[in-house]
Amino acid sequence: MDSKSNEAQAYNYNGYAQQPTAAYGGATGHPTDGYEAAQADQTRYSYDQFSTQAQQVTHPTEQAAWNGVDPQQSEQNTQYYAQPTAQAHHNGEEYAAAGYGSIGANSGQGEIHNAYGASGYGYNQVAPQPTMQPVHGGQLQPNTGFGPQVPAPKPKKEERIDSSQIPRWSPDDKTDEPLKKYYTRSGASPPPSTNPFIAIDEGNCSPRFIRMSTNYIAQDAELVDQTKLCIGAIIQPLAEQTNAEEPPPIRDFGEQGPIRCSNCRAYVNPFFQFVDHGKSFICNMCTAKNTVPEHYYCNLDPKGFRRDRNDRPELCRGSIDIVAPADYYDTPVTDPCYLFVVDASYPSLMTGLLDTALESIRDSVDELRQSCPRARVGIITYDQNLYFYSVKKGGKEPRLDVVADTEDPFVPVVPQTCMLPISDEKEADLLYQILELIPKVHQFNHVADNTGMPKNDKRAFGAATQAGAMLLEKIGGKLILVLSKLPDHGVGKLESRDDIKLYHTSKESTLLIPQGSFYSKLATFCAQAKVSVDIFACPNTYVDLATLSQLTRTTGGQIYYYNSFHAHKDGEAFHRDMYRNISRYTAFQAVMVIRCSKGLSVTQRYGNFFAKEANEMEIPVIHCDSSFGIMLSHDTKLDTKEACIQTALLYATPEGERRIRIHTISLPVTSTLCNLFRHSDLDTIINLSLKQAMSQILYKCSPKDARKALYTACIESLFIYRKYCSTQHSPGQLILPEPLKLLPLATLGMIKHNLFHSGQSMDERAFETALVGSMPTYVACSFVNPCLFSLTDMPDFACVEGKDGRVFLPPVLKLSSDSITEEGVYLLDDGRALKIWIGGSAPQKVTDQLFGTVQVVEGGPAVLQLLYDEKASPTSLNARVWNLITQLRRNCPSFKTLSIVTRNTHTGSSSLDVCQFFDHLIEDAARKNKWNSKDLGTKSDGRCGEMSYIDFLCYIHKGIQDKFF
Ligand SMILES: [Zn+2]
């Protein structure tokens, strides 16, 4: 083959560009054949022409750059550069510039010769610097010798990829531009979930509330099946907004209640079409014609819109809060109740858990008195007995009742005497008295009996939880459980069944199946009583979270897990988690219904809720972090221009008002594959894929099968895109659609994640499974692809508060040990925790500022702490690093702990922390040496776990090619 013409073809390829806004709402008339459609689109939007003329690259632009190496000339390191002109303009705002990555290879050989990367999709905040790394001669950089002792990869003749040019997450926010605005009816795909933006509700709700996996809806099931992309959404009905965003307006329709479709019960929304001079409306969900009630009548303007359209939020906004009429609920609103059930057995005393919990409760109550004056608070403690604290009406002292029958527990008090209204000064004082009394009640629990064993080393956790649920049965509320060890006494006692002999076997997943039926029945009881359960698990050994997590999963609760808890180590995280749990926006007695346009239905739901009826999700307590996933499927072919998803959440506010929060999103229906790919949303796909894989691991398959399913889906999707949407006839190139250009990296991140590997402790696995089930999208992204920052090489703009209060993050480094040097200090955010790595030769002045004058190289991780210097100037390194940490911890459902990781340079020894740190550097090939702490899979699953990012791209490419032949 003529290499030059081949090359010209490759560079001429005009993948696609963001579709202009004009396409929105006009999705009809597309050719039905995918391939023809691609050509049609290409003709229409051919503004992505590459220059075929080779030029020496000097400065890749920030906008987008295609740097590649000519297959035939790579020894000379010739680079080609083309300036794309495509940009997506949306109401004057610009989003992700069209970029395009492709990897050329000799057809049939599976060898990658060229790599083109493009900036565009951002991941974190701002960096005004060029995002492209210098080009390094088309070969992998040799390892620096630091960190894991990776042998430098042997230069393979065929491996000529410039690793700095393959697609990666890159900063998107610009310091010299105002904060980006996202107009929800602009037709553009939402900005990345991890980027800062201001959502402007133009009729569709903000992506913070509903974020779709594709922003076009497929016309029929065959189209969806073809793409192999999951079609669904992540719903976060009470998500936090920025200060610049308007909260959903509140509408009161009076006793008549909101206007709804009499056929499908959809709520009034901007897509109801008013006809017959305003006397009727056609429902956008089911196309039924309804009569407009007299009190709601308004005539229409010449364009057919109601004249009062812009005055009524329900007719122009995608999110509204409706005051619920009395007939929407059958029970009166009760005061928000918070019942703490705290472990006071021997290990709880010895690890400082009891003291930490009591202090955290005290601070949380202080906060509740400000934020939720209607709240009532009560406490139960337990060891092998149950301890109830109550105050008689008008009483001045707390009273203690002890229940020893933990096989059939009962509640010796009534809610009126033990759930204290904290807004009342006297009652709050009594609660503080109880908190002071508790350590005295349990002070002898660490004293040994005559056998030398502690007297109270048993925990009647099941009985305490059951008693708590019974106490709240009539009033609902939050049950907050604190646990130090496996429940081993009374009802709900569990066996220690963590059999490591089953690890790495086909029976491993049986350890995730809950023990017995006690906790599943208790969970159902709680859900029906409108009680949510949160668990703070602080064990030193196996605690069977697989069984206990049923309580949180069914009731809308949250689980926190501090492995090997000790107050010194985990006290701060526990305290901060408890504080956020109590202080975040919380609503009670919630029920959510999700409706879709006729022809679509919800087939799968993920998250923490109780499925009462087919389409009702009961959520006893819902908060701003509560997040749910749904999968959609087609019942019939859609015959409308747009399809709609609407969520309705009936809930009680902390102030005691019943509201219905409505979120509506209406999207164009398409008959072309390319529109689905072009408007797909990687962040949502990552989150849904994780949820889907987790639910499969739990019930159907092994981690290995889940891994295989993930990369098979990646290959299938890219194959379909390649086959039907790409105009490049030769299969010799890996073509990545712009919105999915990071799909291979995200897939690699998933299959390398601990979640998908055997050998992790069962509690850790059960915890992460629970975490993923209710994980918001912005957390899922860094969970899969951690962020690595250099603290010693930050640009001046980074981590300093600007005039408008914005704090920009430093550039994100490549997730490879190549990015790490002995002279540097680095911070890694893996979505759950933050880790600082200190190089052995880090400058003394840097380490002094950050960690004090401790001898870094001699010290182990335990003695090092990041100093907090209140007096530090705002531009000092110390203040900037704290700014960065604060920014990364913002809006997270649980507190990201900070650990310091160092390697003893004298002995060369490394801790588990070091291994875990390097495990996160997913672009590296895994190493079969002391650094490798993971089961990496076997040959039969493609050894994907071992692969470097480049290897993985080759593997994906080969997989696609194999499908062609
Ligand atoms: Zn309807």
TrEMBL record:
Record GO biological process: COPII-coated vesicle cargo loading; intracellular protein transport
All copies of domain Sec23/Sec24 helical, residue ranges: 681-777
Gene Ontology CC terms: COPII vesicle coat; endoplasmic reticulum exit site
Classification via InterPro entries: ADF-H/Gelsolin-like_dom_sf, Beta-sandwich_Sec23_24, Gelsolin-like_dom, Gelsolin-like_dom_sf, Sec23/24_helical_dom, Sec23/24_helical_dom_sf, Sec23/24_trunk_dom, SEC23_SEC24_subfamily
Ranges annotated as biased composition (Basic and acidic residues): 170-180
UniProt-recorded Gene Ontology molecular function terms: SNARE binding; zinc ion binding
Name of the molecule in the record: Uncharacterized protein
Organism this protein belongs to: Amorphochlora amoebiformis
